[in-house]
User: Fold this.
Amino acid sequence: MSSSLSYSLNGYHGIILPGPSVGLDVNGNVAKHIFISHAHADHLPRDRNMHVYASAATEKLMRIRGFKGDVTTLAFNKPIELDTCRVTLYPAGHILGSAMIGVECDEGHILYSGDYRNPPSPVSEGFDCPDTVDYFITEATFPLPIYKWKPHEELFRGIRDFALECLETDTTPVFLCYNLGKAQEVMHALAPLKKRVQIHGAGYKLSQVYSEMGYDLGVYESYNKDTVQEGRILVTPSSSVEQPMVRNIRRKKLAYVSGWAAHESRRSQLTVDKLIPLSDHIDFFNLLDLCRKLNPKTVYLTHTPNPAVVQHYLEKEGIHALPLNMEAHDEE
Amino acid sequence: MMKSKSTFRGFCEVARKISETRSTVRKTTIFAEYLQSLEQDECIELAAQFMGEGAFSSVSGKRASVGHRTVAVCASEFCDIDYDLVFRACRTATGSASESIEKLMENLPAAQNRIKPEFLSLGEVYEFYAKLEQTRKRDEKNSLLQAFWEKMTPLEIKFFIRIMSQGSLRIGFEARSIVNSFAKAWNHDTEEVRYAHMITGSLGKTALLCKNNDLESARFRLFHPISFMLASPVESRNAGDLAEYVAEEKFDGMRCQVHAEGASVKLFSRDMNDITVSFPELATFFSSLNPKAVVLDGEICVFRDDTIQPFQELQKRMGVKKPGKKLLNQFSVVFIAYDILYIDGTPVFDETLTQRRERLQTFCETHGIMMSRQFPLENDADVEQLFDMALAHGNEGLMLKRKDSTYEYGQRRKSWLKVKKPGGSVDTVIMYAHAGSGKRGGLYSDFTLGISVADDERYEEMFIPIGKAYGGYTDDELKKLNKAIKPLVADRFGSTLSLKPGIVVEIEFDDIQINKRTKAGITLRLPRFRAIRWDLSPSDADTLKDVEKLLEEKMNQKREKITENPAVIRS
Assistant:
């Protein structure tokens, strides 16, 4: 086996392993076996009618987001034997249903991370991975040593404290966060308060999947500008800040919940009161730790604003690392 | 160890709290309460100074003089990371060196192992700055910094760096609000406190005067500059009734405050630096008048053949300390007065413009000092007519001044409005994108713009830089621009992207300047975006020759002899 993996890219979207003819988060029907890591839009196929493999929760979430094709659901940690390879989904800790995809084939053991987080989100199936692999294709959304996440419990306490401080002064706390994954994590953090939470419509349906699967999101209801009642807690995407439904709340305070809240500049860019750096991506330090543990022949870095720094640290420890540059590929 | 609020750490916690508070009133209260909790005068003075001025009082002229690069390299050593590869990437991501340093210090074991935080007092931190100020060599500054940082938490290190650069703490809490905190903390009238600040030029001193109930002692002193009154662009304000204003032509020169008494003269620039030695002919002129104590506000312009020369000529004199005979002859300057702040032993900034004007006129006529002419206004048509006339005279535009306004030192409000015409606009191509900082962290917000030299025999390139613009676009346009540059990236150097020609931007500028150090030989003054021309391609960009022609026209523009120039009264 050589130290480099043969792969091709599906435009900006997804990776193809031509050996076993496996497509990972690809856009259309471009390989024999296609796997979807999780239900965020940038990982879902644009072709809504093809056959894919995914976890049970991912299937449910994909359906809500309009996928109509055929989904073979796979349990975590239970390999499926295909004609060209053996594939295992590992819980990725990113959002509910998120999976890392392990492919064992003639070229060796390849692990594709999708988006992931370790320690995992408490409203996900947890985190697990193989002991070692030959190739590790990993996202690196936060690839610099300025990114080191605080423990959940500390951030969750921050979420609760912010909500309580607001409510005590008759102010509506508004949590700005992505409506799949982060919104539910915020609601889970708020659940012990036993206060009513209103969630933006699109996020409401997705939240129901979490509830059905037994995750505690507290008391919540769908939100729209006619039913909003001041004094409740609002969870909504940051894009809604400029819309009347949020603008019309007279007394409110805004908290921005995202890994990007680690940047002070976001405070004035978004004019928010509170930055809560709760991310659903792995931080720089845990990324390096995982690479050490998996000890692959090559680490491929994707979905990253800057592969050079992670590469530099891995190479220092003798782990070969390369950027898997989707944008560069697209230009060729 | 004392762990009271008077420690530097206590100060930093307050600064953090202020940064996390959005309401200005609330910010002011937090700082006022903090100041009240401090007992010693020394602590109060330093806390006020650190909050709004920096390591040293801005009138002291002292600086720690540690460059951005020294700080960054030193922090990289401290954290054991590669400066070029790792540190610069972090700074690009956050848009702030000090914020990156705080996070690196928090996260990296190499730094954590070195840091043994102490509860430093504000006085001890001041001593650190004083040591840095006294040290000349860069490597000595470097080892001092590292020794200091070992005693601080990452939060303290971040604010230590921001204070050291004599700049803003970037917590949305600037001098005006700080002064309000003093008023609130010790129950004084805000205007009185602001006056004391203007006179002392020092936040630390002002805080102490407030605390010790001694605002009375803040008196104007001759030969100490006070902040200039500033003008707002007329487009940004609603002037209201124009009959309340008078107009003066706006000279394309350099703002100057003259302090004179008998044979003694001092000249101060807009940023309150002493520029007396740079303009010896003015110093000689004023001391020859042997005047009573006086402070004048006005403009320095190059004056030759009885004519005010373009700003480009004044540039040859700016920054030249002790100019030689040749320069003095070729580019001799005059001072044109337009305001008076002090006369007969009394500050007169609280008088109305009309009253000050009377005093100014008397003084200038007595001593033969050039003075700007005022024109009455009634309506927009008057403004337009006067504006066109000002341009015809070779001046920059108009100043509209409210007749009943006091001299609002250090403020930019609507009592003075400037009416200017853009120097021109050209279509350029984006050559480089630079990562933004502060509020624009995480975005490419500064752009180096290129002008076409494709058919210019003097150059081999297609485009060469003509200026750098970092404004004039909307937030949405900036986002769109950040997307559009992605596929054009040819190369990366740290926080800069080199781009293939692709995006055409129409830029507006105030003026064209000769600048021999640049490839083009000229630069544009204050270039800003007027429109992103998605409809144009790089081959549509204007050429360097087009810009040179504009400059030539400007230099050769007809200029009125002073005897015939109604903008100036020559007493």
Notes: Chain A is about 25% helix and 25% strand. The two ends of chain A are 28 Å apart (CA to CA).
